[in-house]
TrEMBL record:
The keyword RNA-binding does not apply. This is protein-tyrosine-phosphatase. InterPro entries: Caps_polysacc_synth_CpsB/CapC, Pol/histidinol_Pase-like. It catalyses: O-phospho-L-tyrosyl-[protein] + H2O = L-tyrosyl-[protein] + phosphate. Pfam families: CpsB_CapC. Keywords: Hydrolase. The keyword Lipoprotein does not apply. Belongs to the metallo-dependent hydrolases superfamily. CpsB/CapC family. Its EC number is 3.1.3.48.
């Protein structure tokens, strides 16, 4: 089986960080009380401060949108974002925040797409982060991505290494050929999710197919585990590939279209 005041020039002067590569996280569950992330704003602030300390300067916050479990709306997400940004400003924590969402593939997602009510990142590139059931068939993933692409969005599959159906390397390459961009979870490289997920992540890296990396962070304790990944040689090698996270610095990432 495998409020930010930082400019691009300021970033090059920052050396006292544990993460010497990534400055933008495109997948984090840090808006309080919206999903299985922090239960209050104090927990959110604690995690964000720690992420700043290890080198992140922009976070794209992506709460789950899943009918019956996480019934988040665009309005609710954006309201939560504004409250959190105001609190950071009051506490002089200079992390730039934006919001998108992690959409579960279901009928509701395509209703939102039809109404142009999805939150994306990457400005005009309109990256749409989506996930499927861990046992979804490959055909279902491709069908969903095709609909997303036909609507004018760029499909970004969250943590492909965690899906059972993607254990076959030929299937992984098939998804790429169907226009799907991969976002790997940093913690997968330590076996945080499973040995199998670690092996698939390593295979994806070996093929230079990881375009985005995300913490998928839900808690302070999880972040401590993620920090261990920065020390791994395979992480260092992965950061030499075509990783687009830092290309999003200085852009307005939120798109409500």
């Amino acid at each position: 089986m495998f409020k930010s005041i930082f400019r691009r020039g300021d970033l090059s002067k920052e050396t006292n960080t544990q993460n010497s590569h990534l400055r933008v996280d495109i997948h984090a569950h840090l808006l309080p009380q919206l999903d299985d992330g922090p239960t209050d704003i104090e927990q959110s602030i604690e995690i964000i401060q720690e992420m700043y300390d290890i080198g992140y300067r922009k976070l794209i916050l992506t709460p789950h949108v899943m009918s019956g479990y996480y019934n988040n709306t665009t309005e609710g997400i954006l309201n939560s974002l504004q409250i959190l940004k105001s609190t950071l400003l009051q506490q002089n924590i200079q992390m730039e925040l934006e919001a998108a969402a992690e959409y579960y593939v279901e009928d509701n997602l395509f209703r939102l797409i039809e109404r142009r009510e999805v939150l994306t990142f990457g400005g005009s590139r309109q990256y749409l982060l989506f996930e499927v059931s861990f046992v979804s068939k490959v055909s279902c993933i491709i069908e969903a991505a095709t609909k997303i692409r036909q609507a004018g969005y760029t499909p970004v599959l969250a943590h492909p290494e965690r899906y059972i159906s993607l254990q076959d390397k030929n299937i992984i390459e098939r998804l790429i050929l169907n226009g799907i961009i991969f976002q790997l979870n940093i913690g997968s490289l330590t076996g945080y999710y499973s040995k199998q997920a670690q092996e698939i992540a390593e295979f994806i890296i070996s093929k230079n197919l990881a375009v985005f990396w995300g913490t998928d962070c839900h808690s302070y304790n999880q972040l401590q585990s993620i920090k261990q990944t920065f020390k791994l040689n395979i992480f260092q090698e992965a950061m030499k590939q075509n990783v687009l996270n830092n290309s999003l610095l200085g852009e307005r990432l939120i798109s409500y279209a």
